[in-house]
Amino acid sequence: QVQLVESGGGLVQAGGSLRLSCAASGTIFSVNTMGWYRQAPGKERELVASITRRGRTTYADSVKGRFTISRDNAKNRVYLQMNSLKPEDTAVYYCTMEILATTSGAFWGQGTQVTVSS
Question: Do 34 and 71 contact (CB within 8 A), yes or no?
C-alpha cells in the first residue's frame, strides 16, 4: 500500500525559512507529477508548486521567487524549500504524487502545519 509522509513543518518568524519533505513508500513502479498544496483556515486548498518527472516546475504567483520545489526520483521524494516566509503562508501543507503502483492514482500525505508569526 502506498503511503506519503510529510515532515519539516513548524513555527517560524516572518522572513524565515523552512524545508518540507515528503517521502512515498510501498510498491511503486514510477511517480509522475509531484506537488505541494496548502489549505489555510476558512480557505480552499490551493496549489503551491508542482514538478513533473522531467523537472518542469509550476508555482503559484504568491510564492514565485520565494519557494523552490525539487524531487529525488530515486528516493520517491519531493521537497519544498520555503524562504522569506510571510504570515499569509500559514497553512497546512499537503504533498501529492501521481503514482503508478499496484493501485495507481493520486496519493496525498496527511499534511504538515506551517505557522509564520509576524
Answer: yes
